[in-house]
Write a structure and sequence with these properties.
Length: 380
Amino acid sequence: MGVMEDTNQATFDLRPGEGGQARLILRGRLDRDTTASIWRRSIPALRLLRPSSLIVEAGDVEYCDGVGVALLVEYKRIQRQNEGRIDIEGLRPQCLRLATVFETDQVLSPPPEPGPVVGPVRSLGEMVVHLARDFSDQVNFTGEVFTKLVRTALHPGSLRWRDTLLIVEKAGANAVGIAGLLGFLIGLIIAFQSAASLATFGAQVFVADLVVLGLLRELGPLITAFVLASRSGSAFAAEIGTMKVNEEIDALTTMALDPVQYLVLPRLIAAVCIMPLLTMFNELFGLIGCGVVMASWNVPPETYIERIRAAASLDDLFGGLVKTLVFGVLIAGLGCLRGLQTGTGPSAVGDSATRAVVSGIVAIIVADGIFAVVYYYLGI
């Protein structure tokens, strides 16, 4: 084969010899600008020729960078696939040192494809390891937060009260509208569905009992927690995640500022403070929505209010409000934890916000189930 020339001062010459031998002569500069052309032309020619022994003469190579070394590695790989030999002669010392760094004599093959059994087993193992690691992170984070909360209780001046009040306004006061609207709609829908069924027996007046107990004990705290998890939990994760991506968390650590004390505690305390208030707004508007339905079924307001007073007690109200304190801790804690766990990449912050919402809702459901069992044995 004749000499193949490149316009950027690089050439190669592949010469077949006797007995399946061949000689490949390289000249010029093997850098990122010139190697591509030689690569596209010499590789197909070498594959077509399939020599049993290849001698690469690199004495006329003036310069060689990582791309040039990659070309030599590819020659070795092709010869190894063809079960042939290869010798590189005349490579300059500086190029030889670079080739040694790249370990051109040890070409790694891609790992084999996992079999039909290995793949699922490996995926299951990776999932178990991920869950165990995540559980360990949550336990460590819980212990650290609890320690910082105790320290803050002993030294209230260490808390950033201005930021805490700002978070209370953003996550609490600004969420009153959506919490009240959802409560009104839920109370309206439950009352309408229940009244339509109980009207068959002429017992629609007892709809008030059903709605007020459901709102105070379960629906009010749960709906408010879901609103806060989707609205504020994701916001906490996104805010702290953005700071993590922008290396602001590292800057705080460099300035001897604890990220948990500086970022997590204000959000945690704010969430615990606003959850009971938002829950009461949700329950109030839920009872108003139920009252609208009861009025449409010709139930007097006095009767409706009396049924509410007879069906519910302060135990029902405070039993639901105690749940909200735990829900607030779970929502804010998991949101901040997911933010601190944010990785790198364009989708890292979005992934953290999604994980915060999902893990927050799952934790709320689990905690509500535990409360149900505890309240049953306590007779509440």
